[in-house]
Amino acid sequence: MSDEFILDTDDLERRMKGAMTNLRSEFASLRTGRASASMLEPVMVDAYGQMTPINQVGTVNVPEPRMVTINVWDKSLVNKVEKALRESGLGINPQMNGTIIMLPIPELNEERRRELTKVASTYAEHARVAVRNVRRDGMDQIKKAKAEGMSEDDQKFWETAVQELTDDYIGHVDEALETKQAEIMQV
Questions:
Q1: Of 45, 65, 74, 113, which sits most exposed with the smallest number of CB within 10 A?
Q2: How confident is the model at residue 109 (pLDDT cuts 50, 70, 90)?
Q3: Is the pTM of this model over 0.85?
Q4: Which domains occur in the chain, in start order?
């Protein structure tokens, strides 16, 4: 290899940050007993012949700690929005009031809290796998460079750098999971 190998650790870090961002958005959609507009992000409505995020068919508000309201802009979509909410698996029973749909957030029971912590663990494991996949890509680049004549010292240096970055992001995933689980289990 004529010139020195330099691994694009910024790219690897950007991709690992993407896994963390995705994890945070998945965590935001988990219900914790408190009302939050973000809990409706995964809900899609069959509007105008295509699946549309709920926040694009109405205004989502949180007027009080245990209530989310959706003011549907098009009267013809109210029933479709209600149907999407019932089928979303959020465990919330929508109440109709004209074009406004009210979602009272019930207290979570112990069993439901435990289920939600398991879901959070699953989301965290997906994030860990994504981080490890980025690590594998970095290690593959290092192996290619080794085959092209990189020194063993350089190989060890870059492998250590990639591993430290991976360990750092796995630690962030674990911290985020602990925080979310504590939030879910808080009564």
A1: 65
A2: confident
A3: no
A4: 9-27+109-185 (1.10.132.20), 34-104 (3.30.1360.40)
pLDDT digits (tens, 9 = 90+) for 41-92: 878 899 888 999 998 999 999 988 888 999 999 999 999 999 998 887 777 7
Q: How far is the C-alpha of 97 from the C-alpha of 114, rounded, in Å?
A: 33
Count the Cβ atoms, other than its own, within 10 Å of residue 92: 19
In the chain, how many H helices and how many E strands? 4, 6
Q: Which residues sit opposite 95 in a β-bridge?
A: 102
Q: Measured between alpha carbons, how far is residue 17 from residues 131, 162, 175 in Å?
A: 9, 14, 14
pLDDT digits 0-9 by tens, 164-187: 999 999 999 999 999 999 888 876
Residue 50 amino acid letter: Q
**How far apart are alpha carbons 120 and 117 in whole angstroms?**
5
User: For the ranges 1-10, 14-23, 75-84, 168-177, which has the lowest average pLDDT?
Assistant: 1-10
Distances (CA, A) of 49 to 1, 28, 36, 45: 56, 28, 28, 10
Tell me the DSSP string of 118-162.
HHHHHHHHHHHHHHHHHHHHHHHHHHHHHHTT--HHHHHHHHHHH
